[in-house]
Design brief:
The complex is a heterodimer of chains A (about 160) and B (about 260).
Chain A lengths: L8 H8 L3 E2 L2 E5 H4 L2 E6 L4 E6 L9 H12 L6 E6 L12 H9 L2 E2 L26 E5 L7 E6 L5 E5 L3
Parallel strand pairs in A: 4-5, 6-9
Antiparallel strand pairs in A: 1-2, 3-4, 7-8, 8-9
Chain B lengths: L8 H26 L8 H27 L5 H7 L9 H4 L5 H22 L5 H29 L5 H17 L8 H6 L6 H18 L25 H8 L1 H5 L6
Classes of the chains: A alpha/beta (about 160), B mainly alpha (about 260).
Chain lengths: ~160, ~260
């Protein structure tokens, strides 16, 4: 069966920008870097591959369902989402726009790294509120798996950092 | 690199046995860690143990999923419906959380082995496992960072703190050696480059934990004269595992087919 309008990858990618991380609703799954593959066959069957930020991320099921829901509004025949570890997520995969959105949401950014996260990346992290680097790491574990807690000695506020992984 | 389909029968058995051991350790310690939720000595530790619990359960799920891809039952069924003697976790992870010093020492000794194990496995010839291992080792970095920080802090603290940490080390050490209980598949795992083997892992682990413990001023237990707590990998468990599994599956067993 040939379809009249073949959906292209860009259309799908655009739509995926509407699927947000439920815990940080300003950042889309695309900008978060968790979409690792988009495949569309001749009959407009779409298959998406995604990978979790952290293996135990409870938001993955929600995002998966949201992807199916949003993409179903396009003229697709079927949408499948496969979650796997063929490509392993790391914080360098967050796009520039994603980093901007994280900052807007009040998060300190994960430092870029070469695959090896050292403790230095968690020290003197720039405060998202006042920009000071006079900050202390309080805990490498925060309210969700992907966040660490810091304290700013300049503006005297606690803040969260999206962890470098 | 090998996929699931490239394996002979014995290789498949060996890989499955390894995966069950790994997954069950994650599941059981994940549940134990979660028991600190709401009870941590300080808020940050409450959060840390809860987060690590979540990581461990995520790791168990990924490993059970891989087993499922190899023809075993689905992750929930494997996790919650086996008999106690079908679990292959080591004794260390089964013990109740006890006092905070015990949980901390267990976390240190176990996660140091995990970090090395998954680093080794990231170059496994079994491709699906290597990929998962690459993911896990990045997350485990945070677990070991946390453990080392607190072992140092409490071992050099004032009052009863150093003594309690020493006592926990003495209690945990034989249990921790049980992590490395060899299986009947060691030769296959090693020759097929699926895993470097428990013996190699234990050596690397000792090289990693001893300097940290010494640096913290702790007395290293006399390894030559310790009997490792073996049995878990063969399905022989401590008295603590069954009540844990019963509790963990209590709701599930009320209605096994329920849609959530």
């Amino acid at each position: 069966m040939k379809v009249k309008y073949k959906i292209d990858e860009n259309t799908v990618r655009e739509k995926l920008h509407e699927v947000m991380d439920p815990e940080i609703p300003k950042i889309s799954v695309v900008d978060l870097g968790v979409i690792t593959g988009i495949n569309i066959d001749d009959e407009n069957n779409v298959s998406i591959t995604m990978t979790p930020t952290f293996a135990g991320c409870p938001a993955i099921e929600y995002m998966k369902n949201d992807i199916v829901e949003k993409l179903s509004t396009l003229e697709v025949r079927d949408v499948k989402v496969d979650v796997n570890y063929d490509v392993q997520w790391n914080s360098n995969m967050i796009t520039d726009k994603g980093r901007e959105m994280l900052k807007e949401s009040g998060f300190a950014l994960p430092g870029k790294h070469n695959g090896l996260v050292q403790i230095e990346l968690l020290q003197n992290v720039e405060c998202p509120f006042c920009g000071s680097k006079n900050t202390d790491l309080r805990s490498t574990f925060g309210p969700t798996q992907c966040r660490a807690i810091h304290y700013c000695n300049n503006c005297l506020q606690s803040f969260e950092q999206f962890k470098p992984v | 690199m090998n996929g699931i389909k490239d394996f002979t029968e014995i290789q498949t058995e060996a890989a499955k046995n390894l995966l069950y051991r790994l997954a069950d350790d994650q599941l059981i310690l994940g549940h134990r860690n979660s028991e600190w939720t709401g009870l941590g000595p300080i808020l940050e530790e409450d959060i840390a143990f809860s987060s690590m619990a979540q990581d461990k359960l995520g790791h168990s799920q990924a490993l059970y999923q891989l087993l499922h891809n190899m023809g075993e039952k689905d992750p929930d069924t494997i996790a919650f419906t086996r008999k106690v003697n079908e679990y292959k976790c080591c004794h260390l992870v089964e013990y109740p959380i006890g006092e905070y010093d015990f949980s901390l020492m267990r976390h240190f000794l176990f996660d140091m082995s995990e970090a090395i194990r998954f680093n080794m496995l990231s170059s496994s010839s079994f491709e699906p496992l290597a990929k998962i291992a690459k993911k896990f080792k990045g997350e485990l970095k945070y677990h070991t960072m946390h453990a080392v920080t607190w072992i140092n802090q409490l071992s050099t603290g004032s009052g009863e703190s150093p003594d309690r940490i020493q006592k926990s080390l003495d209690v945990c050490f034989p249990l921790a050696l049980g992590i490395f209980e060899p299986s009947e598949y060691e030769e296959t795992l090693i020759s097929e480059k699926i895993f470097f083997g428990e013996k190699a892992l234990q050596e690397k682990w000792l090289e990693a934990v001893i300097p940290v413990l010494k640096n913290a001023g702790l007395k290293i237990p006399d390894i030559e004269n310790i009997t490792a707590a073996y049995g878990g990998r063969e399905g022989i468990h401590t008295e603590y595992l069954k009540p844990l599994i019963d509790e963990m599956t209590e709701v599930y067993k009320i209605d096994t087919g329920a849609e959530w």
